[in-house]
Design goal:
The protein is mainly alpha-helical. The chain is 75% helix and 0% strand. The protein has 2 domains: 46 residues, Arc Repressor Mutant, subunit A (Orthogonal Bundle); 125 residues, Tetracycline Repressor, domain 2 (Orthogonal Bundle).
Amino acid sequence: MSSPNTRPLRADAQRNRDHLLTIARAAFAADGDEVTLDRIAKDAGVGIGTLYRHFPTRDALVEAVYAAELDAVVADAEPLLAELPGDEALREWMNHYARFTATKRGMLGTLRAGWASGRIATPSTRERIVAVIGSLLVAGAADGTLRSDVRADDVVSMLLGVFVSAGGAGDSADEAQTGRLLDLLIDGLRPRTG
């Protein structure tokens, strides 16, 4: 996050930062909090000094990965709605949210410790996710593919239940169960017939 007095990064520095975030996201999703910063730098093909120039602490890197992932999953809804009916857009968006949740799970220890200590700002994740789901539900109700009597915060609670019970992404059996549960959830959100 940049302050108003921070100059924009040079193009090559921005590419390095973005690449580090991509590598860190994959590493946290695969290996969780156990991944080392040295490994992230090595996997990114940069020196540890470059990583520390962009992210002076592990908490700073975790916070940046989390924020980038949250921004991406929130932004995913609009293009999906532009090309798909409401129910299909919501179902596809749920896949994106499942991947976000899997990445977050890999960083959970660091995130919780950082939030508790105040080293990492507490995000407005739930509010942002509720707002996105609300917009998807409104679009689906307008095109007749989703019920109009469903509250977005109820859908968020159901999604969290799916992710906790199925384990999210990462293991193919968990992913298959997550997919089946998300399909059932979408079926329950479609208008009743007859």
